[in-house]
Design a protein that fits this description.
Layout lengths: L1 H32 L14 H33 L3 H12 L4 H34 L7 H32 L4 H24 L6 E3 L3 H13 L7 E4 L10 E4 L6 E5 H6 L2 H16 L2 H23 L3 H5 L8 H16 L3 H22 L2 H14 L8 H7 L5 H9 L4
Parallel strand pairs: 2-4
Antiparallel strand pairs: 1-2, 3-4
């Protein structure tokens, strides 16, 4: 059984890496082959120069993502098949002999730290080379590393208690530890949804109340008409880090708030802003957030139940390069290898997300003017250098939003 697991893992790791590279190269080839002609639906609003910029930006991002995916696969192979994880465990066993929970936490944190350090150069390169090259980056190295430190501190403050709770339950809560952990994990996530907008997000960005009274009154009228209650309308200083624009809802229950990037408000007129907000309200009215939370809880329930069984199977450890069974090694192995086994589910999740986007567009077209949503989307595609011609297969596999041409054509039906 251990040998079968080893072969299966190696096969899937190679296969998923190959699929990523193949899809990425298809995407690059397709985007570049359509680089010199703007799709007819966008020809009046997007210049050839902007279209070519989007093609080149997409190409550079995809090339970097392919390199990162390859390095991540090699690292995972080293940690699992190459005995790297066992080596980390051996080091901490020599230093901390009698406290399994502390040792387990250090092993897990060490493995995650190695992975993060591998990802860091890619994130830095994307920010200060790729985004800088195309005029999107507004960050300085000081701000980049300041954000990194803040993220690390927040991660430790929030992650350490849940990690120790998981290891403590695994050690002493009996056969159904996974069920108790699922309850703790679910409550923790709901709590994070509630407190994130007010207490965590301000560590990274400044949020100020929307001051444009005319726009504020217009938005509040739309919110009232759609039955949406929020804590307030806020503007986020997105321009401090990037020139990309966006708008979103955040929070849960009474902590919900509407957030606009300052860059978005600078680019869109009031009609277009209202249409974008109507789209976001479509997600709310169709209960997309609640459905996603429910799906996350369901998947985590199944995952923890499976882990509860696997942790007692010697072949699970032996097949993944670990010589000694322990609760914490079961947990870290599961966290590391499960994305490989679940990779081929990505098209299903992407398809579901695109379905949600179509539903939100449909709602927006009924509660605002579809013409203005089209105009807003075209501006955002142009200003964010989003490709108008993604490879269809790559898009079906990865993209959470529908391709621009399909999305615009569906919205255009509401204007005729």
């Amino acid at each position: 059984m251990a040998y079968t697991l080893t072969i299966t893992f190696i096969t899937l790791l190679i296969a998923t890496t190959f699929v990523r590279i193949w899809l990425g190269n298809r995407h690059i080839s397709y985007v570049q082959s359509h680089r010199n002609q703007v799709p007819q639906a966008f020809s009046e609003n997007i210049a050839l120069e902007a279209h070519q910029k989007a093609a080149d930006y997409t190409t550079d991002k995809t090339k970097l993502a392919l390199l990162e995916a390859t390095v991540q696969s090699i690292l995972l192979a080293v940690l699992i098949i190459g005995g790297g994880l066992q080596w980390i465990d051996d080091i901490w066993r020599n230093l901390i002999i009698n406290h399994e929970i502390a040792r387990g936490a250090l092993v897990i944190v060490s493995a995650m730290l190695v992975s993060s350090l591998i990802d860091l150069p890619f994130e830095y390169y994307k920010t200060f080379v790729v985004d800088e090259k195309f005029g999107f980056n507004k960050m300085t190295p000081k701000m980049f590393f300041s954000d990194l430190i803040k993220q690390s501190v927040v991660g430790i403050v929030l992650g350490a208690p849940i990690l120790f709770a998981a290891l403590w339950l695994m050690q002493g809560a009996g056969e159904y530890w996974w069920l108790y952990l699922w309850v703790v994990w679910s409550v923790f996530n709901l709590l994070m949804l509630a407190i994130y907008p007010t207490f965590i997000a301000p560590f990274f960005n400044k949020f100020t109340p929307l001051e444009d009274q005319s726009l504020k009154q217009r938005i509040e009228t739309l919110l009232t008409k759609c039955g949406f209650k929020s804590q307030g309308l806020f503007v986020m200083d997105g321009s401090a880090r990037s020139s990309h624009g966006n708008a979103y809802f955040t929070g849960f229950g009474s902590s919900k708030r509407v957030v606009f990037f300052d860059t978005l408000l600078d680019r869109l007129n009031p009609d277009e802003i209202e249409a974008v907000l109507a789209h976001e309200l479509g997600h709310f009215k169709h209960h997309h957030v609640i459905k996603r939370i429910a799906m996350m809880f369901f998947v985590s329930f199944l995952g923890l139940a499976l882990l509860g069984w696997l942790m007692n199977q010697p072949w699970f450890y032996a097949g993944l390069g670990v010589t000694e069974m322990s609760n914490y090694m079961a947990l870290v192995l599961f966290l590391l290898v499960s994305p490989v086994f679940l990779f081929m589910l990505r098209p299903i999740m992407a398809s579901y997300s695109r379905k949600n986007e179509f539903e939100a567009d449909n709602y927006a077209a009924k509660h605002a003017d579809a013409k203005y949503l089209i105009e807003a989307l075209v501006k955002l595609y142009r200003d964010n250098a989003s490709t108008l011609t993604p490879d269809p297969l790559h898009s079906a596999f990865y993209d959470s939003h529908p391709p621009a041409s399909i999305r615009i054509s569906k919205l255009a039906a509401y204007t005729s």
